[in-house]
Design brief:
mainly beta; Immunoglobulin-like; 6-stranded mixed beta sheet; 4-stranded mixed beta sheet; 3 helices; about 15% helix
Length: about 190
């Protein structure tokens, strides 16, 4: 094969080799303006549904369920949302982003997200707002989270709580919308232990 390429002048032609090297370098170039924090422009949207609540850790190709026991340190409270873009043009923006870049949504209709207990959790009574116990990936408490301009389909929260008692977190998530409506979902966590 190499002899055929040499005879054709392919390898001997520095101009072609230069172009091949240039194309290979260009294909490996990553635009520095694209990073994991801001890899695309958020699509102006409304939240239309809280699709599900599920729990981490993710092990053996499945998420933890209410019959499992996980440590407080490994526990994650995950929510999946569904969004509706304002216009067809806003939806088209999603097709131009990199495949490894999760779409972001500039959500216009959320006023607040809260987590309430539906059963005792340690010494905290049912009905108690425990949003302050949940931390976003950047360390912000859910109770202080108000910037919905770069939301993703999934929100993973860490529980900032420890207890010597093995127990489950029974909760009700309420997403308050600006038009007065609410999105609600109940959940029961795995057993949490140290």
């Amino acid at each position: 094969m190499e002899n055929k390429l040499r005879k054709s002048g392919f390898i001997n032609n520095p101009f072609l080799v230069f172009h091949l090297v240039l194309m290979a370098m260009y294909s490996c170039f990553i635009d520095p303006s694209i990073d994991n924090q801001d890899c695309n422009i958020p699509v102006k949207s409304n939240i239309s549904a809280l699709k599900k609540i599920f729990f981490g850790p993710y092990q053996n190709q499945q998420y933890a369920d209410s019959s499992d026991t996980v440590s407080f340190a490994d526990f994650r409270f995950n929510m999946e949302f569904e969004f509706e873009a304002f216009s067809h043009a806003d939806r088209e923006e999603l097709h131009g982003v990199a495949f490894d870049c999760a779409p972001k949504y500039n959500v216009q209709n959320i006023s607040n997200i809260q987590v309430f207990l539906t059963a005792f959790f340690n010494d905290l009574p049912p009905g108690r707002d425990v949003s302050y116990l949940f931390l976003l990936p950047d360390g912000t408490q859910l109770s202080r989270f108000r910037d919905y301009s770069k939301m993703e389909q999934f929100l993973s929260l860490k529980l900032n709580f420890n207890s010597a008692n093995k127990q489950q977190l029974n909760s009700l998530v309420i997403i308050y919308l600006k038009n007065g409506e609410q999105l609600l979902m109940r959940s029961t966590s795995p057993y949490l232990a140290n």
